[in-house]
Amino acid sequence: MCSRSFSPATEIPSLQGKVILVTGGNNGLGKQAILEYARHGPAEIWMASRNLDKANQAIQDIHAQIGGSVLPVIKPLQLDLNSLDSVQQAARKFLSEAQRLDILMLNAGIMASPPALTKDGYEVQFGTNHLGHALLAKLLLPILKSTAARDTSASVRVVVVSSDAHARAPKAGVVFDSLKTPAEGMGAMERYGQSKTASILWTRHMAEIHRDIKWASIHPGIVSTGLGAGAKDASLPVRVLLKVGRPLMMTVEKGAWNQLWASVSPEVKTGGYYEPVGVAGKTSEKASDMMLADKVAQWTDAELQRFMF
Ligand SMILES: NC(=O)c1ccc[n+]([C@@H]2O[C@H](COP(=O)([O-])OP(=O)(O)OC[C@H]3O[C@@H](n4cnc5c(N)ncnc54)[C@H](O)[C@@H]3O)[C@@H](O)[C@H]2O)c1
Predict the structure, then answer these.
(1) CA of 127 to the centre of ligand 1 (A)
(2) Catalytic residue list contains 295
(3) pLDDT interval class at 36 (50, 70, 90)
(4) For ligand 1, atom 36, which residue shows the shortest CA distance?
(5) What share of the chain is helix, strand, coil (3-state, %, to 5)?
(6) Given the residues 37, 122, 192, 273, the one annotated as active site
(7) pTM (two decimals)
(8) Which whole-number Å values give the CA distances from 108 to 6, 154, 162, 196, in the listed order?
(9) Confidence class of residue 44 from pLDDT cuts 50, 70 and 90?
């Protein structure tokens, strides 16, 4: 598959005046994305993280790497996607302080974790990777829309970090009966694939409805980050590969290119899935099925109804 390179230094335009929120921002791809944004002068970057101490440490690291006398404004935001109450609180805090939102990067994720339920009783990978993010985006839609309305050149974006492992989902793409269970009968990567299929489908659906915002989902590549450490329920060969294969994986600097590209490039087509940088990726049949996308969106809306404000 052909790829293109991406130079964050020259291809990220000035972000002056813009506000950006990145989930899972304290390490891995999220932290790298924030570092690159911070070099282009945005008004504010919000680093959403489960652990505020880790977020503050990551902000210090980024400031140290950037140096200079005027440090970029990076604000920590407490967010645990495992709890829809926490998502609601994070959205409230953001909305009470921020004036606009130009880029929402739904990046946080877990892979192949042991069967479990989120605090609200959803299959944990689905709840974390898809449902928590969907609630965050839905609660922040009004500010995304008001930003788009105020500044038509803003090209307001929602970038969803999915994975080519979406293709590991069960045959049905999303097994709705499994979503409120730990889904022990499914393999760990199947559950991961299901959550990432849902995130691609939901992005496509949102792009159809909210045309004032650009929506894109991406696969970053196979990147050496902390993701593999949590893959405790992956099969032995996958766990071995995640460990010994690390030197062959992409660096986090390069791994962040695709999501950065998707968040700023005028070439992005709304609803698209990109893999690798800037190339429209081929999704599984199920992840291209707009009837299933509508079903995922309806299910998601119904589940999130009680958390909307
Ligand atoms: N690294 C890869 O090869 C690869 C490949 C395909 C897709 N991805 C996707 O890229 C994204 C970023 O992953 P990464 O590789 O940087 O891994 P990482 O483990 O380094 O980072 C994941 C981030 O998500 C956060 N997170 C996990 N659970 C959370 C929760 N309940 N609430 C809030 N935050 C939570 C973690 O704290 C961390 O900051 C993920 O969505 C992952 O699925 C990664």
Answers:
(1) 14
(2) no
(3) very high
(4) 24
(5) 50, 15, 40
(6) 192
(7) 0.98
(8) 22, 24, 10, 12
(9) very high
Q: How far is CA 202 from the centre of its chain?
A: 12
Strand partners, 20: 45, 103
Which helix (H) or strand (E) segment is 19 a member of? Answer: strand 19-23
- CB-defined site of ligand 1, < 6 Å: 24, 26-30, 50, 79-82, 107-111, 128, 161, 163, 219-220, 222-223, 225-227
Choose the residue to mutate in 105, 113, 227 for probing ligand 1, maximizing ligand atoms within 8 Å of C-beta. Answer: 227
CATH class assigned to 8-307: alpha beta
Q: 189 Cβ partners below 8 Å, 6+ apart?
A: 111, 112, 165, 168, 234, 235, 238
Helices 84-97, 132-150: axis angle to 10 degrees equals 20
Cα separation, 292 vs 265, in Å, equals 28
**111 Rama class: left (phi>0) / alpha (psi -120 to 50) / beta:** beta
Whether residue 77 contacts residue 54, with contact meaning beta carbons closer than 8 Å, is answered with: no
CA angle 158, 161, 163 (to 5 degrees): 145
| Ligand 1 midpoint to CA 107 (Å) | 6
Query: Angle, nearest 10°, between helix axes 290-304 and 132-150?
Result: 100
Respond yes or no: is residue 274 known to be catalytic.
Answer: no
